[in-house]
Amino acid sequence: MLKQLESYFEFARLGTDWRTEILAGITTFLTMAYIVLVNPSILSAAGIPLASVTVATCLSAAFGSILMGVVARYPIALAPGMGLNAYFTYTVCLKMHIPWQTALGAVFLSGVLFLALTATGIRQLILRSIPHELYAAVAGGIGLFIAFIGFRNAGLIVGDSATLVGLGSIRNPTTALALLGLCIMVALEIKKVRGSILIGVLAVTALAWALGLEHWTPAPIGLRALSATAFQLDIRGALNKGLLEIIFVFFFVDLFDNLGTLVAVTKRAGLIDADHSIPRLSRILFADAASTVVGSFAGTSTVTSYVESTAGVAAGGRSGITAIVTGLLFLAAIGAAPFVGAVPAAATAPALILVGSMMLATVTEIRWHEPLVAIPAFLTLVLIPFTYSIANGLGFGIIAWAVLHLATGHYRKRDWLLYILAVLFALRFVYLGAS
């Protein structure tokens, strides 16, 4: 049985083994387990019962990750997306006064749209239309993005009213522990120790508890809590209220956040073919779309691929087993959701910093001496972390690529879809600027 599984998941071709994949899955889970606490806290502000949305978060993440691992066989984990959950709560429900049940109906309809565009091959065409130099810029930009998140979580970067950001204090115990964890991980990485990131996370967690720096109060949460949100979505209400604009935003942001994450993870794992295509792309997109539909039925906002999957890839994960292990841990988290808080930010922050630094290696693939390539790539690279959005960075990169190529007469008819994407992104930015 094990041999058959190893054959199905291509262990030999990918140069991986069970130990590596399991450790990678655990690493991915630890770096994105915060969503079990953060997503419910955001969506509960829209009126969704906290206990219910906690279970829905775990279930949708488990379903999406396992489906991705089994069907697409990629080390990509899924969960309710950050940013989209905030849009769901603060814009749709609180600002527009849309009931959360109706908003879930809009999420469902956007998921159905995902599935339709995947089945017709349009999403695949969109991904293939993006120049491979922008792939490299997206991967590097996401590296800066998650490193920035890591520095912020570590307390090394703090808000500053005069300069927007500033340097935190290394006297802060969280900051000091995070820096120690980073040193441990880097040292182990230099020595080629497998599971270096996980070892560092566990070491810092143990130290935080030993020093009495971590405190949390567990509260039991079970499957029964799901009854308050399961199948409560109002699809008819979403259609009757004409929420096409909201459905489009859910679809559009998730589409490009997902594509950006997909490119970053597959590029970091070395899973992109020589012709810059991604094998089994339709299966990846199907898993993402199906997860959004299931998530809406469970009671949570749009489910998407997580950039934290790169932490598992950095730990050696290459096959779908990594995603399956992450999914199983999310399933187990239903009964142990409160205990996820036992892993402090000081333990996961250095993992994000280390992975972010590794992802910058892709920028060497960009032809920096050619302005037609360098300027769009630069905008993509820096605007992902500066705007705190993968979609924004990719959008500016595509617009700049299209404008520069049209203005200098270097456009090609076969790139027609890229120019359509540039127009759609421009309209999106105009819409966001007016809202």
Helix content: 55-70%
Kindly report how far apart the N and C termini lie. 55 Å
- Tally the helices: what do you get? 20
Main β-sheet: number of strands, strand sense, barrel status?
2 strands, antiparallel
- Uncertain regions: pLDDT < 50 for 5+ in a row? none
- Summed up, the domain count is 2
Radius of gyration: 21 Å
Instruction: Kindly report the oligomeric state of this protein.
Output: single chain
Percent range for β-strand residues: under 5%
The SSE string, one letter per element, is HHHHHEHHHHEEHHHHHEHHHHHH
Question: What is the tally of beta strands?
Answer: 4
Integer average pLDDT: 86
Name the structural class. Answer: mainly alpha
- Largest sheet, order of strands side by side? 1-4
The best one-word shape is globular
Give an overview of the whole structure.
With 435 residues, this protein is mostly helical. The chain has 2 domains: 2-357, no CATH class; 362-434, no CATH class. The chain has 20 helices and 4 strands. It has helices at residues 2-8, 11-14, 18-32, 35-43, 50-72, 84-95, 100-119, 122-129, 132-154, 173-190, 196-210, 235-240, 244-269, 281-298, 309-314, 320-336, 345-359, 371-386, 390-407, 416-434, and strands spanning 78-80, 157-160, 164-167, 303-305. A two-stranded antiparallel ribbon has the order 1-4. Helix 5 packs antiparallel against helix 16 and helix 9 (132-154) packs across helix 13 (244-269). It starts with a helix and ends with a helix. The relative contact order is 0.21. The mean pLDDT is 86.
